[in-house]
């Protein structure tokens, strides 16, 4: 979508979400930002307001379905939301061990349930207006399950496939859907990684790529190309060939 006037960004207090907020901030634009850290969220909001945007914020957790829906619908009542960027997510690794049930459920609750909690209150309204766009934050890690981050990979795979299917269902109603699949981006989430991250890029550059892809209504916004190609290949090759290679990779802590 070109020139959205009201943009919702979850996970807007840091990383890609904060970079997207600052990129979209401009006079005449209304930004709705969620984030878990009040201080960081306030700092991003101040930056965006300084660029002329009208900004509303909430620290409501995306896993709180009812509270988030109430806030979203109230904001949409104040002015139709044009673009939803369901960006909030968490990452966790096994540190070489086995992922606990509690950790796996927490990752799925934010990365998958949080996306659905964000988009579903607004889909019927966008359908009625025959206008709107959803950007769902998946990951190149969602193309193949990787040892050391099973819930993260699986949750992002679910978001990607769900978004790709939803795109076809919503297109006749005038609502666009794009799935966003970044590789390694320099954020607080990746700062804790203790292994090489090929083609690591800054969040500002990632935000520009995402915005360009959304403006072109691309079904899949996957980058950088080198990591995308490797991820795609890993997802297509038989496990017999790639399992020994993956087993030797360093684990996320």
UniProtKB/TrEMBL annotation:
InterPro entries: KR_dom, NAD(P)-bd_dom_sf, Sc_DH/Rdtase_CS, SDR_fam
Membrane-crossing segments per the record: 221-242
Pfam family, one: adh_short
Listed PROSITE patterns: ADH_SHORT (PS00061)
Keywords: Membrane, Oxidoreductase, Transmembrane, Transmembrane helix
MF GO annotations: oxidoreductase activity
GO cellular component, one term: membrane
Positions of the Ketoreductase domain: 5-188
PANTHER family in the cross-refs: DEHYDROGENASE/REDUCTASE SDR FAMILY MEMBER 7B, DEHYDROGENASE_REDUCTASE SDR FAMILY MEMBER 7B
Family: Belongs to the short-chain dehydrogenases/reductases (SDR) family.
The name this protein goes by in its record: SDR family NAD(P)-dependent oxidoreductase
UniProt source species: Aerophototrophica crusticola
């Amino acid at each position: 979508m070109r020139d959205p006037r009201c943009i919702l960004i979850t996970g807007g207090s840091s990383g890609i979400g904060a970079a997207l907020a600052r990129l979209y901030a401009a006079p005449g634009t209304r930004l709705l930002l969620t984030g878990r850290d009040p201080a960081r969220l306030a700092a991003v909001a101040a930056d965006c307001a300084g660029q002329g945007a009208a900004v509303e914020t909430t620290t409501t957790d995306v896993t709180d379905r009812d509270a988030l829906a109430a806030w979203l619908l109230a904001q949409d009542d104040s002015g139709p939301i044009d673009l939803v960027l369901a960006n909030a997510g968490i990452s966790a690794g096994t540190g070489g061990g086995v992922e606990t049930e509690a950790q796996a459920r927490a990752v799925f609750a934010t990365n998958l349930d949080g996306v659905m909690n964000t988009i579903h209150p607004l889909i019927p309204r966008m359908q009625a207006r025959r206008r709107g766009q959803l950007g769902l934050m998946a990951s190149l890690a969602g193309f193949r399950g990787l040892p050391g981050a099973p819930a993260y990979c699986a949750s992002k795979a679910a978001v990607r496939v769900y978004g790709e299917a939803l795109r076809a269902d919503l297109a006749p109603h005038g609502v666009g859907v794009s799935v966003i699949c970044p590789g390694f981006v320099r954020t607080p989430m990746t700062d804790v990684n203790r292994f090489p991250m090929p083609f690591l890029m800054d969040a500002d550059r990632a935000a520009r790529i995402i915005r360009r892809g959304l403006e072109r209504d691309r079904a899949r916004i996957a980058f950088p190309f080198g990591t995308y190609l490797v991820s795609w290949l890993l997802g297509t090759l038989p496990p017999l060939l790639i399992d020994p290679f993956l087993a030797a990779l360093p684990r996320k802590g």
